[in-house]
Amino acid sequence: MSAGNDAADNANKQLRRILIIAYGRAADADSRVASALLEKLRERSISDSWWLTLIQDDALRLEHALDLRPNDLAIFIDTHLHGKAPFEFIEITDDGKAPILPEADAVIPGDILHALATLGRNRTLPPSFLLTLPMPRDESKGDIAPDIDASITYAVDFLENLLGDTSNEHWRSETNG
Fold it and tell me: Which SUPFAM superfamilies match (predicted)?
């Protein structure tokens, strides 16, 4: 590949639209984790980029498929009581077996991808990933445990690295699940 093609490839990588959705129940510590992570990410200069959309919500909803539709890459951010420290990063897919509407009240990232596939993207879905932070809780105080602050910092540094190279290959090479 010539140097001119490398420059064009790098320019195209930076022009990709990216959606990051952080979600967690509004009254729970996982919502505070999502909020803290997005707040720290917004402090980074890359968050001002026109091609990056950051959304925080208390739960995933099928309407988020409309948010996902114009994007080339997506990251869903969640917490889990038994998550790996400092975080886990995996690719998620819709294998076409999901029902048109979710069967439970909880919507998962695969449901969003399935809904998007039926909204006119000709079943082409943006590569999508799930970043899961561990969620040790101190319910008595309602606080985020100190080790979660470290996980959030690592995750923000990791996301900034990902956003520096938005090629599918780079993102897939960074998965650890």
Answer: HybD-like (SSF53163)
SS (H, E, C) 101-168: CCCCCCCCHHHHHHHHHCCCCCCCCCCEEEEEEECCEECCCCEECHHHHHHHHHHHHHHHHHHHCCCH
- Of 87, 27, 17, whose CA–CA distance to 58 is shortest? 27
CB of 89 closer than 8 Å to CB of 129:
yes
DSSP state of 80: E
Is the bond preceding 86 in cis, omega lying within 30 degrees of 0? Answer: yes
Query: pTM for the complete prediction?
Result: 0.77
For residue range 106-144, list pLDDT tens digits in order: 777 887 777 777 666 566 778 999 998 887 555 545 555
Residue 91 in tokens: 């690719």
Q: Alpha-carbon distance 118 to 68, whole Å?
A: 12
A 10 A CB-CB count for 173 gives 9
Domain positions in the chain: 18-173
